[in-house]
Write a structure and sequence with these properties.
By secondary structure, the chain is of the alpha+beta class. It has nine helices and 16 strands. α2 packs antiparallel against α7, α7 runs antiparallel to α8 and α8 runs antiparallel to α9. The structure holds adenosine-5'-diphosphate and magnesium ion.
Length: about 350
Amino acid sequence: MRRLRSITLVLALVLGLTGCSAPPADPDTAEEHVQFLAMDTVMTLSLYGENRAEALSAAEDLIRSLEAKLSRTEEDSAVSRLNRGEAVELDEELDSLLSLAAFFRLATEGAFNIGVAPLASTWGFTTDHYQVPDPSEISRLVKVVEETWLRDSPEGHVLEPGQAIDLGGIAKGYAADKLAELFREREIPRAMASLGGNVLAWGNRPDGTPWRVGVQDPARPDDQSAFAGILSLKNAFAVTSGGYQRYFEEGGRVYHHILDPATGYPADSGLTSVTVVADYFPGESFGTLCDALSTAFFVMGEEDALDAWREDWSRDVDLVLVTEDGRVVITQGLAESFTLDEGSGYTLEIVS
Ligand code: ADP
Ligand code: MG
């Protein structure tokens, strides 16, 4: 896959630099930085403050342990065992994350559904052996996904044969929530965490101004400095889902990794990316929320996403929608903090 290869290359170039920090200086402005591959993406963490070195290594450990726990490719993970049909006693963390996933499924009328796993597998998105499946196989799996619910059994939670779950649509957002708690506990004054499209902007930048978070231009996915616009954020999550992030081409068509559970095909809703932004609140799970909603709104398309936002989510999150027809639609709460990239060619609309 083209994009992953270029990411690996970039990573190889920067690996030599990881772990470097500025000479001892004002702890509030000196930075500790690391970049690594986890959860199938590139992660970058930059931390400031007196505790930055210990907190940075704790943060990396945290992400790696979540990766092992939530992965469906790690053979021993609870998720893999559930997917093999075993009854599993869930620990408190997984139990509450799976409950949250079930809530998001209901709240998005099934647009977000961790039960898409068998569909993602048949399209080859789990193994990188991409293929366009047979339409009859897709219809069969759409029914399987629709019926996928974790059941209670005397030995623990269990899935029916053929059913499987994939936490890829919320794992990074959840990791961002856990990072925020870690930063708070360790009194990190400022940090920037970028977990493959899931950003946590913690505190301000060293110069006291908000962090600047680029919204990738989905039309120019290979140029990572091509932005549709820039968000100015402080103590906030910004999570982007886009069809350009993982895809393959066959027969002149592009097939990407965000699947519409209702059709079994990659979502084709007229949006090219969705960014969901929320402020951090201690003890809340707004990183996870942003991640689930970015996937769900991408599946829903502009009109349904904005209806759902007005109805249920407008107090908690704001949106940046990039449309196939060249518009960037932002919700009112971002009017001050989003700046359109003048050279991008998009037109800006603000909705409330
Ligand atoms: P990314 O993982 O690229 O940041 P998303 O957060 O949108 O993007 O999640 C996409 C991942 O979630 C896919 O790789 C797949 O594992 C899973 N997924 C795909 N479609 C859905 C869906 N409709 N609901 C829930 N999870 C999904
Ligand atoms: Mg998501």
